[in-house]
Amino acid sequence: MAQKRGLGKGLGTLFSSDETEDSVKKDSKKKVSTTKEQPVIEKEVIKEVIKEVQVPAETKLKINEIEPNRAQPRKDFNEDALLELADSIKKYGIIEPIVVSKKGKSYVIIAGERRWRAARQAGLKEVPVIVREYSDKERMEVALIENLQREDLNPIEEALAYQSLIDEYHLKQDEVAERVSKGRSTITNALRLLSLSDKVKQMLIDDMITTGHARCLLSITDEEVQYKTAMSIFDERLSVRETEQLVKGVNNILAGNEIDDEGKVKPQSEKDTAMEAILAKLEEGLKTTLGSKVTIKSRGKKGKIEIEYVSNDDLERIIHIINTGAAV
């Protein structure tokens, strides 16, 4: 006990004047007298406040204690770029720490997988990290948003990241836009790219075409025609404006329209007009007979007839009429 009082005296000697000593005594009396009037702060509340203001400190982890995040939106890691980064890390080390979150006995990467991969190639045993506490859902969301904010994803990875936020968190497009600080139209246009054929998506990933070219191709619904058109764009080095004209011509051909030498739709002849009138009458007759909507599509000497039905019973009724020639 004497040692504790001695420590108090030692602190007191830091204040040289009697006036200061008196001031300290008065302050301590004040604190004692008002203690009963102040609300008691729970220990748990204090812990939460401390947790909020604490800045995560940088530390080091063994590289084999860290694993990639399965929610990582980036799927394509350029090997040449990784080798360059690995060489840089050998010379200068990792400048920016990798952000990780503890999961079980290991740590999951939130931001910095590219640096982690390059560090492994560089032969590092340990890497600088900042450890943050996240739930599984938070871990996925933060990883997606962090990568989106860096703007180093290819267009398809970016679109898939937006789609993941929508699917996993049931967000609307405007809510996604708010979280990643982008316009809603940016989100909408990115998501539309996911409806491209797989071959055309890969061309976009490989920088064979731009997002401008890709958006033009969306109006071509036939996947094989879409891919062949994309290859023509790449081979002929077409601009987006030229691509718009090409796609317009392709869609006209798919619709059965005749195209002139300038790529414009030829005006219909009297013969074509007469044929349309005949087809319209045939459609009306079949509609009356079958009791369903009928569409006849003609392309030169070929074509197809589409009959709509609303249920399995309706389909059986239509088939019965076609087979027997009599309504049910």
Average pLDDT: 78
List low-confidence stretches: 1-21, 28-39, 49-55
Mind telling me the C-alpha Rg?
A: 35 Å
From the helix content, strand content and strand pairing, which structural class follows? alpha/beta
Record the strand order, biggest sheet.
1-5-3-4-2
Strand content: 5-15%
Tell me what the CATH architecture of the domain at 58-135 is: Alpha-Beta Complex
First CA to last CA: what distance?
Answer: 106 Å
Account of the 3D structure:
- This protein has 328 residues and is of the alpha/beta class.
- Among the domains are: 58-135, Conserved hypothetical protein from pyrococcus furiosus pfu- 392566-001, ParB domain (Alpha-Beta Complex), CATH 3.90.1530; 207-254; 280-324, no CATH class.
- The chain is 57% helix and 11% strand.
- It has 15 helices and 7 strands.
- The protein has helices at 2-12, 18-34, 43-53, 79-92, 113-121, 136-150, 155-169, 173-179, 184-192, 198-205, 211-217, 223-236, 240-254, 270-290, 312-324, and strands at residues 58-62, 66-67, 98-103, 106-111, 126-131, 294-299, 302-307.
- A 5-stranded mixed beta sheet has the order 1-5-3-4-2. A two-stranded antiparallel ribbon has the order 6-7.
- Helix 7 packs across helix 9 (184-192).
- The chain is elongated.
- The relative contact order is 0.05.
